[in-house]
Design brief:
Length: 240
């Protein structure tokens, strides 16, 4: 606030601070929908006009200050528009992505997975693996708590594709309880070229449904206790 004296009387002139100095923003005042800590285009113009009208005549705003504030406003306006456009693109892309995910329902897929499900003593799915060179193969089966319930030694196998031969029993030969079990296949190259390493296992089945609300979205394969497959694990699709 500045005070000036003219012809024996005292007048008061309001000096507005720069728009960018410690300003939290004002509401639109008319609709009441603009949050109190935001500044929209109309608010800026109203405040900017008031600032020009009430500036100190003995120390008016310099041209570079005016240009700076207008440049800031233009930048914020462009960023706001860009953000709005990006949000629209994101929603559009999300819709396309969901459509593509749903298009696999009813198709047969091959996906990376290491689980086998048992229901009423019967395995709901098979588990496959591929060897790139002759190897000695072993595998272990663990329950949902991580406890190993079965260890198998398949022995030497040539390069090719195979299925895990587990039949749903524990080490004593008793059928295990219904549920999902994790299988780890390990291969040691017969030529000794490298150490034993885990082998990628895959499952194949028809997609019966899709859960888009999961993160990431998942497919459920047909059958009792069908495997839950994240969409990112899908390796191939058969159009049936």
């Amino acid at each position: 606030m500045s005070t000036s004296t003219t012809s024996g009387s005292t007048s008061t002139t309001q000096v507005m601070p720069g728009i960018g100095s410690n300003y939290l923003g004002i509401g639109s005042g008319s609709s009441g929908t603009t949050p109190a800590n935001t500044l929209n285009e109309q608010d800026f113009l109203t405040l900017f006009t008031a600032q020009l009208q009430n500036q100190d005549p003995t120390n008016p705003m310099q041209s570079y200050q005016l240009a700076s504030q207008l440049a800031q406003f233009t930048t914020v306006e462009q960023l706001t528009q860009a953000t709005s456009q990006l949000n629209g693109i994101e929603q559009y892309s999300g819709g396309i992505n969901n459509s593509q995910i749903l298009s696999l329902v009813g198709k047969t897929i091959t996906a990376q997975d290491n689980s086998m499900s048992l229901s009423s003593g019967t395995l709901a799915n098979s588990l496959n693996y591929a060897l790139s060179k002759p190897s000695t193969v072993t595998y272990t089966v663990a329950d949902s708590n991580g406890n190993t319930i079965y260890s198998g030694n398949i022995g030497a196998q040539n390069a090719g594709s195979y299925s895990v031969p587990w039949t749903g029993t524990d080490s004593s030969g008793s059928t295990v309880a219904d549920g999902s079990y994790t299988v780890t296949v390990t291969a040691t190259p017969s030529d000794g070229s490298s150490a034993a390493a885990a082998v990628q296992t895959t499952v194949q089945g028809q997609v019966s449904s899709c859960n888009l609300s999961a993160s990431p979205p998942t497919y459920t394969l047909s059958g009792v206790n069908g495997a839950q497959i994240p969409v990112s694990n899908v390796l191939g699709v058969n159009s049936n």
